[in-house]
Amino acid sequence: MKLGPLSFSKASVKHLREGQAASIALADGTAVGSIGRLAESIATSYKFRQPVYLAELDITALLDSESRSTQYAALPRYPSVVRDVTLLVSRDVSFADLAQFVDSEQIANYAGVMLVGTYEGKNIPEDKRSITLRMQYRSDERTLRDEEVEERHRGLIDSLLIKFGAKLH
After folding, report:
1. Residue 65 scores a pLDDT above 50
2. DSSP one-letter code for 75
């Protein structure tokens, strides 16, 4: 069965606790169920000792909904190589700024960047923050060698240092 994305929104369902209930709908807005915590009045009448959560789905509505094709990508055949870098940047530089710049550099075999963490506080100047990025490199044709990844990664780091006035931390 191929379904479109489901959405959840706050709901008021008489047998569910207010504020802890949601209605479930298809992408076109068709309601197909509800989910949430059972109301106290009902839970105590059955002498439940712990909170009870439940979900209700209208299977007929799900089956009658428009089918959507499933899109997938094959798992990578060759392993990725990961490199981390920690930069000391101005507080007004966001991860989104850094990620957008990294993506725009169009480095060979670059597969993505993610945020590892940020730090502001002791041993960091007031107007700065430490941001750790994780870059991933992968080739679809072969396993990458450390030397070539290191060369590309070093070039990317140099570009980041220049563009954002950053320092390695």
Report:
1. yes
2. P
Tell me the percentage of the chain whose pLDDT exceeds 70: 93
What's the CA gap between 18 and 38, in Å, rounded? Answer: 9
Helix/strand/coil for 98: helix
Domain end: 39, 64, 89, which one?
64
Asked if 64 and 111 touch (Cβ cutoff 8 Å), the reply is no
Same domain, residue pair 87 and 149: yes
- Give the chain's domain count: 2
pLDDT in tens, 72-123: 888 889 999 999 999 999 999 999 999 999 999 989 999 999 999 999 988 8
- In angstroms, what is the C-alpha Rg of the chain? 25
Asked if 71 and 53 count as a contact pair (C-beta separation under 8 A), the reply is no
- Quote the distance between the C-alpha of residue 96 and its chain's center: 13
Burial class (CB in 10 A: 0-12, 13-18, 19+), 140: exposed
Determine, yes or no, domain membership for 107.
yes
Amino acid at 112: G
Look at the pTM and tell me if it is higher than 0.70.
Answer: no
